[in-house]
Design goal:
Layout lengths: L1 E5 L3 E7 L5 E8 L10 E3 L2 E7 L5 E10 L4 E4 L7 E4 L2 E7 L17 E9 L3 E9 L11 E4 L2 H8 L1 H11 L6 E5 L4 H5 L3 H17 L7 E5 L1 H11 L7 E5 L18 H13 L8 E7 L5 H13 L3 E7 L5 H6 L1 H13 L4
Parallel strand pairs: 12-13, 12-14, 14-15, 15-16, 16-17
Antiparallel strand pairs: 1-2, 2-5, 3-6, 4-5, 6-7, 6-9, 8-9, 10-11, 11-13
């Protein structure tokens, strides 16, 4: 069986194989983690040593190949620490100083959920789930947070748990969230003008049906982070704040590795239009997070500097993690908390 030992300078993985039934063992993890992937034979099994990366967590799987040639990828059977990801369950190693957010353990009253559908002329059905903080009725005026990849943020990053905890603590005012569900994620979130227009139509529909204050905020991660910024900067926008986590702000000089992505040209053109804008017609409050070791860090750093030059109020925090929902969850507080308190007013 396999286990990972964390030392001051190394991660050491071992896999027991006393019957010598395996022909090869490899580690599957993010490409940003440097070092060999193939285990070497050791007494009683297999072993792999890696230089300890500057991360709080390492997600991984094992690829094992038997002497008969059968291969299988799976979690570490001896490591009870698992994490659900957008690509299935993985094993995870936590560094000694890692601490999960305290709000995960709050026992706050649950908000309400209402499932809605916006039928768009170009995109078809756009599913939305409206979350409302406890005690809110349709006639209660409250701010709105629009969330790209909303269901995934809830399922994999505990977004409603975060919201309920912050409201219960009195850290944030009661508010609503429009949890936008992508049907064709790559097509919709890759600087698609039809999706941007649909977002505004959803916002108008919600404002007609619910008493909404005039200070909406929009958020997203990866391509959703790109969409969040493009929506907020649009001429139709009434958004006053943006949270982008590991936004896909691709530029040809920084992201040539993404050039085979089908919508690369559309994304880079949209990013270029933002970069070429001389100044901000409307000043936004922008919060950004990105893993210090992930591929998107350079384009996020460049975008943060660009937005700052244009006159937006920008906070950019690097985090010791990679491109995943746990990283985005762990950086909601204080990054999004500070953003929402600034835009919606402080409490407590």
């Amino acid at each position: 069986m396999c286990a990972a030992v964390v030392s001051e300078s190394q991660l050491v993985f071992t896999l027991a194989d006393r019957s010598r039934s395996l022909a090869a063992v490899s580690l599957e993890c993010a490409q940003e983690i440097t070092g060999q992937r193939r285990f070497r034979r050791a007494v009683g099994g297999w072993q792999l040593s890696l230089a300890r990366p500057s991360l709080h967590r390492v997600e991984y799987k094992l690829l094992v190949t038997t002497r008969e040639g059968a291969s299988q990828v799976g979690c570490d059977p001896e490591n009870n620490e698992r994490v659900r990801t957008a690509f299935g369950e993985r094993s995870v190693v936590h560094m000694p100083h890692y601490r999960a957010p305290t709000w995960l353990h709050d026992r706050a009253e649950s908000g309400s959920l209402e499932r809605l559908t916006h039928t768009d002329r170009s995109l078809g059905d756009v599913p939305i789930t409206l979350w409302s903080a406890p005690g809110l009725t349709k006639d209660t005026t409250a701010p709105l947070l629009v969330v790209h990849d909303g269901p995934e943020y809830v399922d994999l990053a505990g977004l409603t748990t975060y919201a309920e905890a912050m409201v219960a603590r009195g850290t944030l005012p009661t508010f609503r969230m429009a949890l936008m569900q992508p049907v064709l994620r790559d097509e919709w979130y890759s600087a698609n003008p039809d999706y941007i227009a649909a977002t505004f139509d959803v916002l108008d529909r919600l404002a007609d049906a619910y008493s909404t204050s005039a200070d909406p905020v929009v958020m997203g991660a990866s391509l959703g982070g790109l969409s969040a910024l493009l929506v907020a900067l649009h001429d139709r926008s009434s958004f006053v704040g943006v949270l982008s986590q590991s936004g896909s702000f691709f530029q040809p000089r920084l992201d040539s590795q993404e050039s085979s992505y089908p919508f690369f040209s559309r994304v880079t053109s949209a990013v270029r239009a933002v970069v070429d804008s001389p100044s901000a017609p409307r000043r936004l409050v922008v919060a950004m997070t990105c893993g210090a070791m992930e591929e998107n860090f350079a384009n996020n750093d460049a975008m943060a500097a660009c937005l700052d030059r244009q006159g937006h109020q920008v906070t950019f925090r690097s985090v010791p993690d990679l491109h995943n929902y746990t990283a985005w969850r762990d950086s909601l507080d204080p990054t999004m908390t500070d953003l929402l308190r600034h835009v919606w007013g402080r409490r407590g």
